[in-house]
Amino acid sequence: MGVLLAVYIILRGYDFMKMIFKLNGLDCAGCAAKIEDKVGKLDGVTAATVNFITTKLIIEGKDEKMEAIIKSAKDIIKKLEPDVVMQEASLQKA
């Protein structure tokens, strides 16, 4: 079973934040591309990138919508890659 772990927030300012997640167990490059595409289209997301080699997901979006974005990202990942589980790390102000 894979784990998607929020490792840290690297930028928080104004109305936007950038979060980096580790996608443990992601074993499909095509699925990584689908996750990137679907997460990138979520309301409030300004950019989403999945690097299959490093298994990192980076989400940039509106601060006030980030909670909903993360929930939607969990749903997308569960649907596309059921063995990848998303776990949030504690949020830290940068």
The oligomerization state is single chain
Number of helical regions: 2
Q: How large is the radius of gyration? A: 12 Å
Question: What's the structural domain tally?
Answer: 1
Query: What's the β-strand tally?
Result: 5
Main beta sheet: 5 strands, mixed
- Poorly predicted runs are 89-94
Q: What is the string of SSEs from the N terminus onward?
A: EEHEEHE
Query: Any idea what the shape is?
Result: globular
What is the name of the CATH architecture?
A: 2-Layer Sandwich
**Straight-line N-to-C gap:** 31 Å
Which fold name corresponds to the CATH topology? Alpha-Beta Plaits
- Helical amount among residues, as a percent range? 25-40%
Mean pLDDT: 82
Fraction of residues in β-strands: 35-45%
Report a brief summary of the structure:
This protein has 94 residues and is an alpha+beta fold.
Folded structure, characterized:
- With 94 residues, the protein is of the alpha+beta class.
- The protein has one domain: Alpha-Beta Plaits (2-Layer Sandwich), CATH 3.30.70.
- The chain is 29% helix and 41% strand.
- Strands 3-4-2-1-5 form a 5-stranded mixed beta sheet.
- A hairpin with a 4-residue loop joins strand 3 and strand 4.
- Helix 1 runs antiparallel to helix 2.
- The chain starts with a strand and ends in a 7-residue tail after the last strand.
- The C terminus is likely disordered.
